[in-house]
């Protein structure tokens, strides 16, 4: 699935479907989104339904088609959608902080348990796994993060940059910022994830600083990068060395971590922490401490949070409950 999410701009989700049973309806999850231009392609067949039926209470959407999809066939479902970026601390949301006397913004996600359906339409149930190809469009001076590493990143240049999704051309023509109407934007394409549920999908954007290290998995013997991110206004990123050291130890001794691991600390975060695949997120108070000043209880609390999230990258992200 390829996903683009922006503020009040209509873009498109593309779903690759394997039809296991003949059907003339498709049911998926959606909440607080405006949906339009639903199209279904199956071999030589194209069906269009411009008026999907939304069940608000159940947060489900039903698409009905005149010709059933035969069992064993493959189909591509495209759905136009748009939504608002709010500070609700669930789904895809925004937060702010003061830096250098001005207000700065960053965005991040919290999809557990059922908020992935808020930034984009999807099958938002743990048993229904898919691969995700995330693209983030941002100011050129911003940092973009997601579950996987960046496969390609380019500065957008009108008339010269190749954009596969036609709706993005409309988006770029309308993009401005408060401080610079002519600001440069970039396109960050992340590598496709392995099969995973929707709730540990994650992405973030902002002016972040980081510490970098690496770890070697005790079973695979592979060496992978490890970064701890925080917003620029935090007192001293050097205080995260205790957090980084513990995470390095934990990842080196678990089976689950054979990929990159980023960790983002956020002050506006409803859960204590979240085991997103490759991009663990959590409250500043849960991870951020000064090892020279923090007592044993605070250190034990930070270790408990980190070991809990790292354990969930195997018992949860890979081996997942049905519901």
Strand and helix layout:
Layout: E1 2-3, E2 11-18, E3 23-29, E4 34-42, E5 45-49, E6 53-55, E7 60-69, E8 74-82, E9 91-99, E10 102-110, E11 133-139, E12 143-146, E13 150-155, H1 166-174, E14 185-190, E15 203-206, E16 208-216, E17 223-231, H2 241-252, E18 261-266, E19 273-274, E20 279-283, H3 284-287, H4 296-312
Parallel strand pairs: 1-11, 17-18, 18-20
Antiparallel strand pairs: 2-8, 3-7, 4-5, 4-8, 6-7, 9-10, 11-14, 12-15, 13-14, 16-17, 19-20
Helix pairs in contact: 2-4
Walkthrough of the structure:
The protein is mainly β. The chain has 4 helices and 20 strands. The protein has helices spanning 166-174, 241-252, 284-287, 296-312; strands spanning 2-3, 11-18, 23-29, 34-42, 45-49, 53-55, 60-69, 74-82, 91-99, 102-110, 133-139, 143-146, 150-155, 185-190, 203-206, 208-216, 223-231, 261-266, 273-274, 279-283. Strands 16-17-18-20-19 form a 5-stranded mixed sheet. Strands 1-11-14-13 form a 4-stranded mixed sheet, with no helix packed on it. A hairpin with a 2-residue loop joins strand 4 and strand 5 (45-49). The longest helix is centred in the C-terminal third of the chain and has 17 residues, at 296-312. The chain starts with a strand and ends in an 11-residue tail after the last helix.
């Amino acid at each position: 699935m390829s996903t683009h999410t922006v503020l009040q701009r209509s873009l498109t989700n593309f779903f690759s479907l394997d039809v296991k049973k003949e059907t003339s309806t498709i049911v998926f999850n959606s909440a607080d989104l405006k949906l339009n231009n639903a199209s279904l392609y199956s071999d030589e067949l194209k069906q269009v339904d411009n008026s999907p039926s939304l069940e608000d209470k159940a947060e489900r959407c039903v698409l009905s088609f005149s010709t059933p999809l035969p069992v064993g066939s493959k189909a591509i479902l495209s759905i136009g959608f748009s939504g608002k970026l709010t500070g609700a601390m669930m789904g895809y949301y925004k937060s702010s902080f003061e830096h250098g006397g001005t207000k700065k913004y960053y965005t991040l996600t919290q999809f557990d348990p059922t908020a992935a359906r808020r930034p984009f339409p999807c099958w938002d149930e743990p048993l229904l796994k898919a691969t995700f190809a995330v693209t983030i469009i941002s100011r050129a001076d911003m940092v973009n993060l997601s579950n996987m590493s960046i496969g390609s990143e380019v500065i957008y240049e009108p008339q010269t940059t190749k954009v596969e999704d036609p709706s993005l051309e409309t988006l770029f023509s309308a993009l401005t910022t408060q401080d610079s109407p002519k600001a440069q934007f970039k396109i960050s394409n992340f590598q496709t994830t392995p099969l995973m549920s929707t709730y540990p999908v994650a992405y973030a954007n902002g002016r972040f600083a980081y510490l970098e290290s690496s770890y070697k998995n005790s079973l695979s013997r592979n060496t992978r990068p490890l970064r701890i991110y925080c917003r620029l206004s935090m007192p001293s990123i050097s205080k995260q060395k205790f957090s980084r050291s513990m995470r390095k130890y934990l990842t080196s001794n678990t089976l689950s971590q054979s990929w990159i691991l980023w960790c983002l600390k956020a002050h506006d975060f409803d859960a204590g922490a979240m085991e997103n695949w490759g991009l663990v997120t959590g409250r500043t108070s849960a991870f951020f401490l000064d090892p020279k000043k923090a007592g044993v209880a605070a250190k034990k609390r930070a270790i408990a949070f980190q070991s809990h999230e790292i354990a969930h990258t195997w018992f949860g992200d890979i081996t997942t409950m049905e519901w």
